[in-house]
Design goal:
Elements: E1 4-7, E2 12-17, E3 20-26, E4 32-36, E5 43-46, H1 52-60, E6 66-69, E7 74-78, H2 83-103, E8 107-109, E9 115-116, E10 122-123, E11 127-130, E12 148-152, H3 159-171, E13 176-181, E14 186-190, E15 197-200, E16 204-206, E17 215-217
Parallel strand pairs: 12-13
Antiparallel strand pairs: 1-4, 2-3, 2-5, 5-7, 6-7, 8-11, 9-10, 11-12, 13-14, 14-15, 16-17
Amino acid sequence: MSRTFTASPGPILQLHHARQVVAILVVRVATQSAIHLEDLLPATFTSPELTDEQFFALCEQFPDATLEHTEDGEIIVIPPTDPKSSVRVTRVTQRLANWADQAGRGEVCGPDGGFRLPTRARRSPDAAWFDGCYPSTKQRFPILAPQFVVEVRSPDDRIERLRDKMLRYIAAGVLLAWLIDPFEKTVTIYRPNREPEVLRSPTSVAGEGPVEGFVLDLSGIIPA
């Protein structure tokens, strides 16, 4: 079934696809300028700033996608991934959650969990661990940086964008970040004030700092 996104007066968003500007969109829905999403995703928007209400209104127009908002005002629309990539992400999240439960340490979120980072970016990492301490606020999405995040590259992910994303996690206060690339068979480890460390064809990777004691078995995640 074809789905469309329609435009009406409101905060202007510029839509980019395949590195070219293809349309000018806005947040609110009306009956004009229908754009077929299937022809555009994955795609990015740019907007100088969005309120919480505007961001959530935009999310409602992409019910089957995940939206992220960068520090630079870029809104990334991420369509559903393929089953094999989803299985890899599920294994990472499940193994991290199992460890956290057994150790009685912290909380784990999967890719459906959104974080509003101190840099004002909105991110949904494939897996995230944090100590369970929530800011004392009634906000649905308080400003909170998880201490540990994992991203797993999928076939649609450009590696340059993912590397930049990992650096931005660290700049936002994340203490440890792993980028798992099943195609290059690498795990890149990001830490504050250090150059990224690349592990090639690892069978496991050991946590440190906030997740000291966690060892991720990479079977079924990185091919042998």
